[in-house]
Amino acid sequence: MSAPAIRDTRTSAPGVFMAVLWRDIFVTGRELPVFLAQVILQPLFMLFVFGKVLSNLGYTRPGYAHLLFPGIVALTALLTSLQSTALPLVLEFSFTKEIEDRLLAPIPTALVAVEKMIFAAMRALIAAACMFPIGVLILGSVPWRAAGAPEFCVILILGALVGSAMGLTMGTLVPPNRISIAFSLVLTPLLFTGCSQYPWPTLDSLRWFQVVTLFNPLTYVSEGMRGALVPHVPHIRPWVCVLALVFWLAAFSAIGTWGFIRRAID
Amino acid sequence: MRGEHGPAVEVEGLEKRYPKAPVNAVDGVTFAVERGEVFGLLGPNGAGKTTTIGVLTTRVKLTGGVARVGGIDVSRDPVRARTQLAVVPQRTNLDRSLSIRQNLIFHAAYHRVPAAERNRRADELLELFGLTDRGDDKPDYISGGQSQRIMIARAMMHTPQVLFLDEPSTGLDPAARLFVWDRIRDLRDRGTTIVITTHDMDEAATLTERVGIMDRGELLALDRPEALTRGLPGKTTLEIALAGADGNLDAAVAALERLDGVEQLERLEQSDGHIRLYVAGDAPLMVAPVAGALSGFGITLSDVKIGEPSLEDVFINLTGRALR
User: Which of the listed CATH numbers 1.10.10.60, 3.40.50.1110, 3.40.50.300, 3.40.50.620 matches domain B9-229?
Assistant: First the structure.
């Protein structure tokens, strides 16, 4: 290493972005079993209790398991990506400070936030994909239609991104000492008001709750998944789901990125 | 653009006011650091040193003035400015999911250093910093001194023009501190411009070529350490401890102040009979007249210390307060 010559100051945003993304993939890749256990356990038990146990005991109608499954895939995708951005960000900004080295990389700060979202969405896609073999194992079979595949993919990707944008918002706006309270206050309602365990149109008889569920982005992922995988079950129309998800994605990624920059730069 | 020939760091009328703060954290600071220089910002905690470094390293947004690193305006083009600089913060921010070597390698990747070059530089820097056999360890259970070394090595991976070190030896034991100082000199010898902040006057005096003294957001003085101490009212000091002073200390002190050659007198806080004199001539020659003046009051000298003024004295002279 000689004296630093006059450096080429050109920067390549895609190159730097890939290096930052590669760091996260590298770190998670080594901990894949731990990661999978972390994200799959909850949907696995939901699927088992609601789809298998209750139906074997005769408490649910036949066919409920297939109605539940798309909702569980939706829930897995959204919650995995939410947790994959919110928790690491709180730790990295407040305690370990280890994100600082990446904030000093020659790349616009907003792109570091985008990287966090993309990476969390990737984790969510893997977790959602894992639900298929698990579903087959627990339920015996899972609903799948080749014709619904494009819609399934669009909804899944949008759902994963919305989850990571929600996580970015939480992770950067909630003060670090309140994050565990925030998680318990947000996650449980999110889990049960997102239409993953029941189809939205059938909530007619419980009007106020039907209105409440409209404010949960998960509702549109669950309903979109049902439209793709089990179209005979009543569901919100696909285009409404896509539109709603695009809206939530735009809103949360704008707020989340703003929050991220606020934490990154004084 | 004067990036290639101008100073490595330029700050003009720099101001930073945090939202809701009653005063500016940095208030109109101006200085320039030449290429290859080791420059220090000395001041107590809260003086605005870390904020100044924060602005220069694109982590703090300025609210007034201009700041350039390597000729690049940090507020207009932070992305390009980051290619010119590296930072070693006060608190460790090593990536704990990566090994020590991977910390270096990934840092270089973030800065687009080609893969083969990354490995070569990592080996070289691990060796220079005495870390070769620790390369595969995680940075979890290492001492403060070692994490400081790793962070400096990491910073050098993309051969920055300017290296910023925030309080580089705070919390280090004396041996680790000397090691870090030696490495900083090595880096200077390789042509890197170095800016350090410190509240340690020894560090400023031994390590830096020029030092800026900051307090309450303002730059109070800026010069070579020797020049700053030479500019003090007395060139050298005579510290004396008095014995046998009962009630007539004030009169004795007044008499000392009237002595020829005494430019300034300071009663040190520790005890009333402990005085520092700033003298114009040779301090040893002042001992006899001082003793003579005191004997008139029945006071004798119980201790005499002759000292060159330090940066601490410069700070006290500028602010009326001790550095810590």
Answer: 3.40.50.300
Binary contact (B61, A265; C-beta < 8 A): yes
So what's the architecture of B233-308 in CATH?
2-Layer Sandwich (3.30)
Which of B112, B160, B161 comes nearest A16 by C-beta?
Answer: B112
Q: What is the pTM of this model?
A: 0.84
Tokens at B41, concatenated: 């910002």
Q: Which residues of A touch B121 (CB under 8 A)?
A: 1
Q: Which two tokens stand for residue A127?
A: 């977790």
Q: Nearest residue of B to residue A108 by CA position?
A: B79
Q: Could you tell me the two tokens for B310?
A: 């330090």
Same fold, B9-229 and B233-308: no
The answer to whether B55 touches B74, Cβ cutoff 8 Å, is yes
Q: Does B183 touch chain A (CB under 8 A)?
A: no
Domain ranges for chain B, please list them. 9-229, 233-308
Burial of residue A88, with CB atoms counted within 10 A of its CB: 0-12 exposed, 13-18 middle, 19 or more buried = buried
Q: What is the pLDDT along chain A (266 residues), one digit of tens a residue?
A: 444 444 444 467 888 999 999 999 999 888 888 888 888 888 999 999 999 999 999 998 888 999 999 999 999 999 999 999 998 899 888 888 889 999 999 999 999 999 999 999 999 999 999 999 999 999 988 999 999 999 999 999 999 999 999 999 999 999 888 888 988 899 999 999 999 999 999 999 999 999 999 999 999 999 999 999 999 999 999 999 999 999 999 999 999 999 999 999 98
Provide the CB-side half-sphere exposure for B33 (13 A, CA). 29
The verdict on B83 touching A (C-beta cutoff 8 Å) is yes
Q: In angstroms, rounded to a whole number, what is the distance separating the alpha carbons of residues A173 and B114?
A: 37
Place of tokens 């704008």: A254
Q: How many residues does chain A have?
A: 266
- Interface check A45 vs B, CB under 8 A: no
ipTM of predicted assembly, 2 dp: 0.86
